[in-house]
Structure formats: structure tokens, C-alpha cells
Amino acid sequence: MLELLVPLFILFLILLTLTLIWRSKARKYISSSTVASAYDAWTQDKLLERMWGEHIHLGFYPSEVKKIDFRKAKVHFVHELVKWSGLDKLPKGSRVLDVGCGIGGSSRILAKYYGFNVTGITISPAQVKRARDLTPLGLNCKFQVMDALDLKFEDGAFDAVWSVEAGAHMNDKTKFADEILRTLRPGGYLALADWNSRDLSVDPPTFIEKLVLKQLLEQWVHPNFISINDFSDILRNNKNSAGSVITENWNSYTNPSWYDSIFEGIRRPLAILSLGPLAIVKSIREIPTILLMNWAFRKGLMEFGVYKCRG
């Protein structure tokens, strides 16, 4: 009996230590500067790029395909959202704004495969620098540091606005919608994807769900989550929207990304080990949040909303 208790006690101590590290380094949203600082850190330590590749968003896993590579699924996601939103109907040379562009993975696909003239903006200076470093000469992509709640572009400057998994970092969802729709020309296309909660006013969270939501907000600099319907209403009621907003919940297509993001460390161990011992600690530190995200999306507490409308 004692032989069994000793390893269990050691495991308990390890888990307790990891939990304390996880909690002590919570990345709570305070202002937009905390979002910038978090993404600067993630970009500079290179861990996120080594694990997730150039696309810092979830992948698309077609239901008819049993297995797809994690990084290919991310590329597939871009093409699926382009097709679903109607961006593929735009001619080459169309001006596209990528809001929350990360290190430019999606921007480069939009420019390379569809011939768009893409401007990517992010609040993180480190991401802009890395995006520029990764972009080949001659590709119609440029990147700027800019707050999505205060876009420095004229009204109607773009034929399309693209934004993937950026809105959850915005503390004012109405202002976010105001800015992206203001910069969209009349008749232009909006393609947006984001992490949403279910409608908590209709189906209030349980005690456990409240704890999970609290951690998801505090660990990855999210000020708040709103439902797909709530954000759809914000878009629909905006003065720059044509009024017709179409949404879907892509949970079933994107959920495999969570486990895959952990398994990448097993598939590509050198990607982490080459960054040194601290990278191993940092990668382990993210696992609890990833597992909570997986649980929340699988249970329907969180939903992966996609949105399309015309300016």
C-alpha cells in the first residue's frame, strides 16, 4: 500500500506545483496594453510559433476526413472561411484588411492564393516585426501596429475585412464592430471568426462553468465573451451594415485543434527542446488552459462563431 501512496503523493505535489505556477502567472486583461504585452512575449519566446506554425488560430477538420495534419488544418481553415464568406468572389487586387493578423499567416495566404492586396494590423509590435520577417518580397502584404478599436483608415477603405479569433480580446465589442464596418466599403465583404460563449442570459452557467469561464478569461487576456447571437445583433444593428448577417457555429470542425495543439509537442519534440529548458516549463504551463478550452467547447459552454455580412 505504501509503495502505491508514494508515487501518488509525488504526482500530487507535481500537479500542485504546476497549478500554483499556472495561477501565479495568470494573464488577466487590464487594458489593450496587456494584450500587446502577452502577444509580444509569446512571439519573442518563439514557443507559440514553433508549436502552432505561422497560423495562430484553430484549424478546420472536415467531417469526411478522418485525419488531417494540425498545421494543414489551419491552412484549410483559411480557405474554408474564404469560400464560406464569399471573399473568393472578389477580384485580384482587392484591398483586404486583416484585423488581429498575428504573425501574418492568414494574410500571406489571402495575398498568395487569391491575389489580394492585404494590410494586416495587430496591437503587438513583436508580431508585426515577425510578420514582416516571414513575408517574401513581392507578396502584397504589409503589416502595421494598430489598435482594432481605433483603426487609422478612412471610411470604406477596404473591399473586405477579415478577422479571426481577435474579437475575444476586445473589451468593447460594439466599438470593434463600428471600426471594422466603418472601414468596409459599401457592398464589401466581412469574414469574421471568434470564440463566443453560449447565450448565458438564456442558459446561465453552473458554478463549475463560472470557474472555467473565469480561468479562460484570466489566462489568455480576454476581457469578456459574448454569444454568437449577441455579436450578430451588434453587427446587424450597425449603421454601416447592410443588415443581413449570417452566422454558424463551427465547433464540430474546429474542436480537434485543442488536443492536436498538445500532441504537437509529442510529434515535434525538438521544436520545444531546441528553445531550452524554460520552453518546456512554458509549454506545460499552457496545457491546463488548453484542456479547459477543449472541455468548454465540447460541452457547448463556448462556441466557435463565424460571421459574414456585406457593408
Question: Please, could you describe this protein's structure?
Answer:
With 311 residues, the chain is an alpha/beta fold. The protein has a single domain, classed as Vaccinia Virus protein VP39 (Rossmann fold, 3-Layer(aba) Sandwich). 50% of the residues lie in helices and 16% in strands. A seven-stranded mixed beta sheet has the order 3-2-1-4-5-7-6, with helices on both faces. The protein is globular and about 50 Å long. The termini are far apart. The mean pLDDT is 91.
What is the topology, as strand order, of the major beta sheet? 3-2-1-4-5-7-6
The share of residues in extended strands comes to 15-25%
The CATH first-level class comes to: Alpha Beta
Extract low-pLDDT stretches.
none
Overall mean pLDDT: 91
Radius of gyration: 20 Å
Give the structural class: alpha/beta
Give the overall form. Answer: globular
Number of helix segments?
A: 13
Largest sheet: 7 strands, mixed
* Cα-to-Cα separation, first versus last residue: 69 Å
CATH superfamily: Vaccinia Virus protein VP39
Could you give the count of β-strands?
7
Number of domains: 1
CATH architectural arrangement: 3-Layer(aba) Sandwich
Instruction: Tell me the series of helices and strands, N- to C-terminal.
Output: HHHHEHEHEEHEHHEHHHHE
Secondary-structure map:
Blueprint: H1 2-24, H2 32-44, H3 47-52, H4 70-85, E1 95-99, H5 105-114, E2 117-122, H6 125-134, E3 141-145, E4 158-164, H7 173-182, E5 184-197, H8 207-219, H9 228-236, E6 245-249, H10 251-254, H11 256-267, H12 269-273, H13 277-299, E7 302-310
Parallel strand pairs: 1-2, 1-4, 2-3, 4-5
Antiparallel strand pairs: 5-7, 6-7
